[in-house]
Design brief:
Length: 734
């Protein structure tokens, strides 16, 4: 049993922090490369425009270059200020909630033994003594706050980088689509690597600090570490809901008045809601998404560690095997680093057609390389056979079986990514069919879009099902936790292509607002259409991994609560399942109504400005952007509390009043229906958006037949897109 692993413990202690630091360093290098694009017209303008001596592909006719750079810089700082002030406001509110929740955790966990400070027998091995419950309560609370803080930092840094890169992408688009793609992609990579490396480093440091107190009591140590995952994900919940309400309200408000009523193009500077719309992309799709993926990542790591601590790894105190989840993530950072170089340095994107394939290759390359990476890690860090705790018994597992668990999660992620791409990219028939249905008006567009979303659920669910079956039959709950980790092991690349979307969306908005020529707008539109698809792929990853993670946590909960089986036939459990399956619908109803009412306020404000500010339509007067930003901010802060409270309080209330069995039913039910709603809503929204882009771009005869902007079919497509914005906030959590 206690055979040594090939990688000594000292090696593990060096490898994990080194990989994390390499990830952070790589992110900084990419950031410096993005920063090379100058956003000022200072002394260097003589040597060459925007800091380079490169000639622009085309000179803007009759407009001096400086006015563009200056305009872009102005718009960028407006977006950055709006996003920063929103996040600060949001974090103040959420901070209060976090402190309250932390106190709650401390009281609940500490009260187990009446706040005693004496050592007590261990839960799973009563022959040994473990640290008191009070200590575990204190350390759990600490790791909860640590997780919440890391989640906030991840989201905030992502937003800062995105608002730093958006105008630079616009300026690079003057030199060609390839240059702009590289800037947007590099800045996405900055966010991806910072997040993956930070998440890993903070967790590793926390484990080592807690060890100073816990010593050989690993069971208590890793139980206390679970707070880290909870903190990360509860923070993510608010970030996602708050940011989501913000971005959709601004988007819907801007579209309804601007495009539908006033017939001005998207991102037109005369539209008062246009800055709020671009701020929304950053706080919703970047900060929200960052926190979200960090939450899943922290939860899956913690779930795996907790199960491992009561398996043979924890009992024999085998540090290297114990930290297997962290080693997988460390190798993931190195693999993603290599993968990123393929997009930025080895193959250059030259034309519009190459953008989507380049992003797709990122997924394939990272998955293939990571498969080898996992194989190597499993070979050097696991004993050839070991046992895994499985509902009260130790189950014997071989190291290659664990490798398969991680690999199946990894490949399931790739399959989900590809299916999502097929259903949301305008290069394939599903989106083109939706666009085609716009000929007969908005109703058919909505019907086709919904059908597409429901259909797109089939393969991802089968992929998740297969990975659950394989990983559970090999290594029980530990297998499922590491499968989720496998799906998230290439998180740096996943986030890079995900953050690329909102950055190029903003770049297009800035080009339109700065009044750049049509050809530049076409380039940013092409970048943006690919971005819609990658954003949907990122959401697919987040949803898939969240499903696996919640199952692993569900398993951890069930084994902690000493239930060995959950019997569906007992009425207690069955009513739990029914109620649980209803929760995501309730949650969606709340968020959709919130978006609707916030959008309504936004529409009224935009109409008011068009009607009362003289010269706004002629472009002689400037709209009041700040007011719209304020409306979105206030609405989303106010509206994010009820859905958040619903998710956080339901388990507590059900557990206290109806007992553990009903609660296990509720958790299972919510997991099952949440995944379906989340995948279908996300893909429907992405498809409607790209159907609209498909008609606007007019790249094929079919698209041109559907008409230019302003045709009946295009108007129907815009309505579909607006509906999609309303319904795209996901309940796929917890």
């Amino acid at each position: 049993m206690g055979e040594a692993t090939l990688l000594p413990d000292r090696g593990t202690e060096i490898l994990i922090p080194v990989c994390a630091v390499i990830g952070i360093a790589f992110a900084l290098v990419q950031w410096l490369m993005v920063a090379k694009v100058r956003l000022s017209n200072g002394k260097d303008s003589a040597g060459g425009r925007s800091g380079y001596t490169e000639a622009l592909i085309e000179e803007e006719e009759g407009v001096s270059d400086h006015s563009f750079v200056r305009k872009c810089a102005e718009i960028q700082s407006a977006i950055s200020e709006g996003a920063t002030s929103f996040l600060f406001t949001e974090y103040q509110y959420v901070g209060i909630f976090m402190v309250a929740f932390a106190i709650l955790i401390f009281v609940f966990l500490g009260s187990v033994e009446g706040f005693s400070t004496k050592s007590q027998p261990c839960t799973y091995d009563s022959t040994r003594m473990c640290k008191p419950a009070l200590a575990t309560a204190a350390f759990s609370t600490l790791s909860f706050l640590l997780g919440a803080f890391t989640s906030v930092v991840s989201g905030f840094l992502g937003m800062k980088i995105a608002t730093f890169a958006n105008a630079r992408t616009t300026l690079e688009a003057r030199k060609g689509v390839g240059k702009a793609f590289i800037v947007a992609f590099r800045s996405g990579a900055v966010m991806g690597f910072l997040l993956a490396a930070n998440g890993l480093l903070v967790l590793y440091i926390a484990i080592n600090l807690f060890k100073l107190y816990y010593g050989s009591d690993w069971e208590g140590l890793f139980e206390a570490i679970t707070g880290y995952g909870l903190g990360g994900s509860s923070m993510a919940l608010f970030g996602r809901v708050g940011g989501g309400i913000y971005t959709k309200a601004a988007d819907v408000g801007a579209d309804l008045v601007g495009k539908v009523e006033r017939n001005i193009p998207e991102d037109d500077p005369r539209n008062p809601a246009v800055i709020a719309d671009n701020v929304g992309d950053n706080v919703g799709d970047i900060a929200g998404m960052g926190s979200d993926l960090f939450g899943s990542y922290a939860e899956s790591s913690c779930a795996a560690l907790v199960v491992a601590s009561i398996s043979s790894f924890g009992i024999t105190h085998d540090l290297t095997a114990m930290l297997y989840p962290l080693l997988v993530s460390s190798v993931g950072i190195l693999v993603c680093l290599l993968t990123t170089l393929f997009a930025t340095d080895f193959f250059e994107v030259k034309a519009v057609e190459q953008i989507e394939p380049a992003l797709k290759k990122q997924l394939i390359i990272s998955t293939v390389l990571m498969t080898f990476g996992i194989a190597i890690v499993s070979w050097i860090s696991l004993p050839s056979t070991f046992t895994i705790f499985n509902f009260g018994v130790q189950k014997e597992v071989k190291s290659w079986e664990l490798f398969l668990c991680v690999a199946v999660g990894l490949w399931a992620g790739l399959i989900i990514g590809f299916v999502t791409e097929y259903y949301t990219s305008n290069a394939y028939s599903p989106v083109q069919d939706v666009a085609d249905s716009c000929r007969t008006g908005a109703a058919t567009n909505v019907i086709f879009g919904l059908a597409l979303g429901y259909k797109s659920v089939i393969i991802p669910i089968l992929a998740i099902a297969v990975s659950i079956f394989v990983s559970f039959s090999f290594a029980a709950m530990y297998g499922i936790a590491v499968a989720a980790l496998g799906m998230l092991s290439t998180i740096a690349t996943g986030l890079a292509i995900d953050a690329y979307g909102p950055i190029s969306d903003n770049a297009g908005g800035i080009a339109e607002m700065a009044g750049m020529s049509h050809s530049i707008r076409e380039r940013t539109d092409a970048l943006d259409a690919a971005g819609n698809t990658t954003a949907a792929i990122g959401k697919g990853f987040a949803i898939g991994s969240a499903a696996l993670v919640s199952l692993a946590l569900f398993g951890a909960f069930v084994s902690r609560a000493n239930i060995s089986t959950v019997d569906v036939l007992t009425p207690k459990v069955f009513i739990g399942l029914l109620v649980g399956a209803m929760l995501p619908y309730w949650f969606s109803a709340m968020t959709m109504k919130s978006v609707g009412s916030a959008a309504l306020k936004m529409v009224e404000e935009v109409r008011r400005q068009f009607n009362t500010i003289p010269g706004l339509m002629d472009g002689t007067a400037k709209p009041d952007y700040a007011n719209c930003v304020k409306i979105s901010t206030d609405a989303s802060i106010k509206e994010m509390i009820p859905p958040g409270a619903l998710v956080m309080l339901t388990p507590l209330i059900v557990g206290i009043f109806f007992g553990v069995e009903t609660l296990s039913g509720v958790l299972a039910g919510a997991l099952v229906s949440g995944v379906q709603i989340a995948i279908s809503a996300s893909n429907t929204g992405g498809a409607w958006d790209n159907a609209k882009k498909y008609i606007e771009a007019g790249a094929s005869d079919h698209a041109r037949a559907l008409g230019p902007k302003g045709s009946a079919a295009h108007k129907a497509a815009v309505i579909g897109d607006t509906v999609g914005d309303l319904s795209r906030i996901h309940p796929g959590h917890h």
